[in-house]
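Q: Give me the 3D complex with zinc ion.
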Amino acid sequence: MKVKTRGFDKDKKKLLKKKRDALGPVRKRFCRFCADKLGSIDYKDIKRLGVFITEKGKINSSRFSGNCAKHQRIIRELINKARFLSLIPYVR
Ligand SMILES: [Zn+2]
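A: Here is the predicted complex, encoded as structure tokens.
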């Protein structure tokens, strides 16, 4: 049996495509820790933590870094620990 709303769906698809084209190419965000399945991250691993810090020393948001909420929380705690132990500066 044919669905009557077929034409409408087509129009909707076209509209969505137009919207997407206007915004530019879409890059799918992914959590690099979920993707690589890295179980443990260390607060001593400054090189890897440094990716999630801006040049002024602030922590990048998950929106920027693409981390999931769980891993963003873990990274925030690790960075704060590393800061407390003066491995990473609070402010540059
Ligand atoms: Zn994750």
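A quick observation: The mean pLDDT is 83.
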